[in-house]
Amino acid sequence: MAGTKRSAEDSGPATRSAKSAKTDETSTAAKGKKGGNKKNSNKAVLPASQFKAKALPLHVNVTHTPPSAADDDSVPSTSADPGQLGSLTLLPSSFNTGSYGWKGSKRLTVELENDTGTKEKVQVMLTINATVLNSKNAPSEEETKDEANGEAAKEEAKEEAEAETAEKEAE
User: Fold this and answer.
1) Above 60 in pLDDT, residue 144?
2) How far apart are alpha carbons 48 and 55 in whole angstroms?
3) Could you say which of 90, 106, 110, 164 would form a disulfide bridge with 102 (CB–CB 3.0 to 4.6 Å)?
4) What is the value of pTM for the model shown?
């Protein structure tokens, strides 16, 4: 029956008996939002200025080999590691996006083995950003001061209104 179209009546069963039943609830896949788990989204976050004042640098060691403790305590494990490529210090910083965390970058030389068995060196630029979750939504230092000033102003206005009410009642 090439070249003929099926009519709407022949399109299949009118009921959903062949399929699973429709439900009013949305599927679990539709419930998930982009961005992962939002459990801690209401957790208070420090203003960027307080973060920078309190945060200490982070240190990262880059190696070809998995981390292992040295057998002898006299030699630091980083210098005992034969696959050690370098180390990097991440400093507390504010990002252009408005969030904050740690960032650092360093040039490293990595040796690669060719097909012929000779070693070849390549330069690598290592850049690491460690962003504090929800820090983009953190209040700025000005906002926290404004909130404190706003609350003080509300209390002052309330006291003035009470004083006026007391004066009117006294008259």
Assistant:
1) no
2) 10
3) 90
4) 0.52
pLDDT band at 47 (very low <50, low <70, confident <90, very high): confident
Cβ count within 10 A of residue 78: 14
Say yes or no to pLDDT of 44 above 80: no
Phi, psi of 133 (to 5 degrees): -60, 140
pLDDT greater than 80 at residue 125: yes
Residues 6 or more apart whose CB falls under 8 angstroms from that of 130 comprise 58, 90, 101, 102, 103
* E-assigned strand segments in 9-118: 58-63, 84-94, 100-113
Kindly list the distances between the CA atom of residue 78 and the CA atoms of 82, 85, 145, in Å, as whole numbers in the listed order: 9, 10, 45
Number of neighbouring beta carbons within 10 Å of residue 103: 17
